[in-house]
Known about the structure:
By secondary structure, the chain is of the alpha+beta class. It has one domain. Helices cover about 25% and strands about 30% of the residues. It has 1 helix and 5 strands, in the order αβββββ. It has a 5-stranded antiparallel sheet with strand order 1-5-4-3-2, with no helix packed on it. The radius of gyration is 26 Å and the shape is rod-shaped.
Amino acid sequence: MMRYLVYTLVLVFALSFTSCASRVVVKEPTSVTVVKKLPRQYKVVRVKGKRYYFFNGKHYRKTRRGYVFVRV
């Protein structure tokens, strides 16, 4: 009886390590183009409560460095 209890505990202990495995996906960083100043023809639009700057068919987001192109 004791042998089965030990085998069961070892089995549960061994299986608990495999459930803690996590998968990490690493993406290469994309190149980001920062626009320092938008042209005068830009329009401010709101998408899902966030402010974006729209010009020439593209949406931009304001950052400390300037404006960055984003997909909306």
